[in-house]
Amino acid sequence: MPGTCVIGLQWGDEAKGKLVDILTEDHEIVVRYQGGANAGHTVVAGGQTWKLSIIPSGILRDGVACVVTGGVVLDPAKVIEEMDGLESRGIRMDGKLRLSDRAHVVFPWHVVEDRLLDGSLSGGGAIGTTGRGIGPCYRDKVGRSLAIRLGDLYRQDFRAKVEHVADFKNRLFANWPSGAATVLDAAAIHAEYAAYAERLRPHVSDTTAYLLDSVEAGKRLLFEGAQGALLDIDHGTFPFVTSSNSSGVGVASGSGVPGRWIDRVIGVVKAYSTRVGGGPLPTEQDNAVGLHLRERGREYGTVTKRPRRCGWFDAVAARYTARLSGVDELAVMLLDVLGGLDELKICSAYEIDGVRTTQFPGQIEDLARAVPVYETLPGWPDDLSTVRDEGALPANARRYVERIAELLGRPVSIISVGPDRAQTIFRDPETTRRPPWQRPQPATA
Ligand code: IMP
What we know:
Blueprint: E1 3-8, H1 16-24, E2 29-32, E3 41-45, E4 48-52, E5 65-68, E6 73-74, H2 76-88, E7 97-100, E8 104-105, H3 108-117, H4 134-143, H5 158-174, H6 186-200, E9 204-205, H7 207-216, E10 221-224, H8 250-255, E11 262-270, E12 273-275, H9 288-296, E13 309-311, E14 313-314, H10 315-324, E15 329-333, E16 343-352, E17 355-357, H11 364-369, E18 371-378, H12 395-408, E19 412-416, E20 424-426
Parallel strand pairs: 1-10, 1-11, 2-5, 2-10, 5-7, 6-8, 7-9, 11-15, 14-16, 15-19
Antiparallel strand pairs: 3-4, 12-13, 16-17, 16-18, 19-20
């Protein structure tokens, strides 16, 4: 069975990019299947830092194909910017990067709508989106009549489509209550996107057919989830979510590859919780602990640079998303960030209106009233960033990780103690699942 998938189990930013980069070594194709330029992956390799948003980090390796499927909403300007950045540092794209002709395209009107609508939640408040036009593009996809897909950019009627949509959106904006003051120039937008289309042409194809051929040929695929499962449009903390299925349930629909081809699901958690944007975060620590986590963990948004809200590990939420995503094993990231705190807390239950529960509520109003029930564990003073094997971890750090595994009902197979590839501890007994440098060397004659 050829498929592995990496799913964030919290509110995104679980350091999935680093893990995907390491696991790429054992896969031939890396697949990005939902979200868009709202995501940000940071990969540190060989002393260099790479920041990617849409293009899978597999692009950094030779011989690995990177596929952006039809489940992604694609902003061509952003993809080209990323391609330019990579090419200027010697990373080649040809024959490696494939973009689905089914992917819906983000246009300037989507970005305008994102700005206009974000503060207009029914019931008040703001989602605090990344402002990249993600929700409005998905809305047009589902609405169909105003949608334009990447494949449409190469057809005769592309200009007519842009004119049709721009005309509709101009009338919408003109009647916007607060006065949108945006007038879209259809001819200019068409010209801009026609140029993008030419640049992207060698990469655009039917990726669904390519992926189905690949799995049937026994190729090894790595599915790279963006955001985190609690931001899933259907199963997350609605309405404070993103607009795609960012939990494990989204892999098949976003990629076009049935779940039966996936035999390994890795759930990625940070050793604590973070969230950017609005919505409840039951374990939030708006105090010295939160400050410690933000500063030690460099918890500022990759895309928007916003400071992330920080708090204790929430095992109720992560257990829910581990089950939802069909997680087999866990990766605990950023464990080093907890070093220096005397005591650590893990939320193992909620009390909602005086009733104790370990079920994650489906309604945001209930989650907002949830009072965390904490277990307290002893911390460790040590700097973990140089630890390379499990035995060298302080006993309290091992105990903390084990408690996460118990509460989530899954083994922890990977522990990360820093941003570099080398700062990773693999506990999996199956040596094939370790990166090459941690595999036992064959005995020499
Ligand atoms: P959108 O995806 O830009 O519509 O934003 C919706 C919500 O998801 C906001 O709270 C964002 O901050 C959050 N979000 C979107 N992408 C990411 C991500 O990659 N990491 C963390 N939060 C994200």
